[in-house]
Amino acid sequence: MSAKLTLARGLSLLGHPLLVVPLAAMLAAASRGADAGVVRGLGWWLAVLAVVVLGYSRWQVWRGRWAHVDASGRGERRDLNRALLALLVLATSVSAWAQGPGLPTRALALAAAMIVLAMLLARWLKLSLHVAFTTLAAWLPLWPAAVAGLLLLALAVAWSRLVLQRHRPAEVIAGVVLGSVAGAVLRIA
User: With the C-alpha atoms ordered 88, 49, 95, 134, is the resulting torsion angle positive or negative?
Assistant: First the structure.
C-alpha cells in the first residue's frame, strides 16, 4: 500500500464521527464553562452511543449481512443510517426529558436531521457523513484553536475520503455544506 493510501486511511479513521463528535462536544462544553464532571459525563454518554453503533456494525458483519463494519455498501449504509436515526431519536428524547431543550438536545436532534437528509438524498448521492459530522464538529467549541484544529481535520478527512474513493467530489462538498449549515444553526439557535 502506498504512503498516500496509508495516510488517507489513518486520517479517515482519526476523523471518524464516532471519535470526532464526542471530542468536539466535550470541547464545546468545556469552552462554555461546564465543570470537569459535566464534561466527563458528556464524554461517557457519547462514548456509550459510539459503542452501541460500533456493536451494531460488528453484529451485522458477524451475521454475514455486511462485508465490513465500514458499511460502505448501499444496503449496508441504509441499514446503518436507519439504526443511527433510531438511536439519535432515542438519545434526543432522553436528553429532552432529562435536561430540556439545551444545546445537547438540539445537537442530537440536528444530528438526526442530518441522517434523515442523507437518507433522502441517497438515491442521487452518497453524502459524506464523515465530512458532514467532522465539519459540524468544528462549529461546536468556542475556542479558536479548537475550531481551527477541527477545521483542518475536516479538510484532511475530505481529502482522505476522495483518495480512498469512498466518495465523489460532489458528495464530499455536500458533506461540507450540510455540516456547515448544521453548525451555523447550532450556533444561532
Answer: negative
